[in-house]
Every structure is written in C-alpha cells, then in structure tokens.
Design the sequence.
C-alpha cells in the first residue's frame, strides 16, 4: 500500500516546502492537502505556485485535496457559515460550491487525483431536501472537476447524511462510476464500528483517512492511541479492490516529535499488514 499523509497534521501553520519536506522525510509517498485558507490559501496564486513547484521536483504525488470546510481564514470563528453543499439555504449552497471550485482549480497548477468532499456538517440530521441537494451539488462539482482530471470522493463523517448506507444511496442515485469514497477509520469507529462501515463501502473506497479515537469523540489521534483494532483495520483494508493509500490524518497540535511519530505509525501499520499476510 502507498504510504500517505494529510497536511492536516500541521493545519495551524502556513503550508510551505519545509513542511512538505518533513512529510516526505516521515515516509509519505503521497500527500493530501487540507484546504483551509489559513493553512493552504488556494486562492493565492503565489502560494499555489510555491506548493506546485515542490511537487514537481519532489517525486511525491498529490493524492488529494480535502475540500474546504470554511471560506474564511479563521475556521468560522467570527460567524462565517461553514462550506456546506447541503445547506438549507440555496444561496449558501451556491457560495459553498463556488468556494470548492476554487480549491479544485489547484489542479491547473499541480495535478491531483481526488477531491475529498463532506456532505453536511458534523451532527447534521438527514432529510430528503438535503439528499436532493447532495445529488445536485455533487453533479455540479463533478462536471467542473472532470475536465481537470479530478475525481470526487465522499467521506463518511459523523452525521445522518454521510453514514455508509446514505453514501451508498447517493452514489447509486447518481450512477457515476468515477464517484468513490474516502473511508475514514476514526469516523467509522465513532459512528458504529470499523468493520461494519468498511464492508458497506468497500467496493467504492479509493482513499482513506487513518486516525484513532476512544470512540467517544473525533480526536484524530495516532494509531494505537485510541481503541481501534488496527490489526483488524489493516486486514480489512487489504481486501479493498482498489488498493487505496494508507493516509494518516493526524491532529498534530501540541504534540512533540511529530515526524518521528509519523514514522513509528507507518512502521506499526506495516507490521499489522505483514501479520495480515500470514
């Protein structure tokens, strides 16, 4: 499996070549960029060019960009609404899709395979209007992304719209073979359990988010810091038909020796993979 890391581990810092070098030296063969403007300003041509130049010379691929969660530089702390393609207000849905398209346009400067897209916000309830908004929003974003070589992945997140069964309903309704899933192990652990969620989504999994928690909240811990059974998780991952990358999405704020711990995480997961082969 390809080893990959999300820049979310340094999301409180401005993304720059030094951070990308650190991720490469920590074992990343591919990278996901977390599109938060304070971290990676996808609307700033100079910033995009700086990051694109690094990828062109590094030998590391850009696996994916995580779609923006907010359009401001402060994660909505001053009242800015979240980026949400199933928002109840049409104007906000349109604004959200416009913001996401700005992130997709990064592909004009550095190619990437996938845009990882949330449906709704954490804890959001399901209703039929939001389901229809999800279909419309994904159809619109796919039409924009496809000419740029970008495919959409929906992510299982802790809400009623993005639980595995509903994600399958959305994908079935759209009939797009290129619409897949980014499987988040930590979210699956919080919402139900890893095995149940994985089996429901397995044929559609194209990428992953690997992090741990204690099942009470979404913490983005290093593997083995929570209660996920990683031997089982890696054994399951090996059965996914599309061989998705093993992509660490860790909250690095306040943690020491992050590069060394990323390396340790890959080593422990590789041991679990070796055990699964026996």
Sequence:
């Amino acid at each position: 499996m390809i080893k990959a890391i999300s820049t979310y581990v340094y999301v409180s810092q401005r993304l720059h070549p030094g951070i990308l070098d650190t991720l490469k030296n920590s074992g990343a063969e591919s990278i996901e960029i977390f599109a938060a403007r304070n971290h990676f300003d996808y609307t700033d041509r100079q910033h995009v060019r700086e990051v694109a130049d690094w990828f062109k010379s590094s030998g590391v691929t850009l696996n994916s960009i995580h779609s923006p969660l907010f359009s401001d530089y402060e994660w909505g702390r001053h009242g800015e609404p979240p980026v949400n393609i199933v928002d109840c207000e049409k104007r906000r849905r349109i604004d959200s899709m416009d913001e996401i398209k700005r992130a997709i346009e990064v592909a004009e400067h550095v190619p990437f395979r996938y845009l990882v897209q949330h449906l709704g916000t954490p804890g959001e309830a399901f209703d039929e209007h939001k389901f229809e908004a999800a279909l419309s929003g994904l159809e619109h974003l796919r039409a924009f992304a496809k000419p740029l070589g970008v495919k959409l992945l929906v992510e299982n997140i802790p809400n009623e719209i993005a639980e595995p069964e509903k994600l399958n309903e959305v994908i079935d309704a759209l009939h797009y073979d290129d619409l897949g899933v980014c499987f988040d192990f930590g979210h699956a652990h919080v919402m139900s359990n890893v095995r149940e969620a994985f089996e429901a989504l397995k044929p559609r999994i194209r990428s992953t988010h690997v992090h741990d928690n204690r099942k009470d909240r979404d913490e983005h811990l290093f593997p083995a810091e929570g209660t996920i059974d990683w031997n089982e998780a890696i054994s399951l991952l090996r059965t996914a038909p599309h061989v998705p990358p093993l992509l660490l999405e860790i909250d690095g704020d306040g943690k020491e020796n992050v590069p060394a711990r990323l390396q340790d995480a890959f080593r422990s997961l590789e041991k679990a993979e070796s055990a699964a082969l026996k």
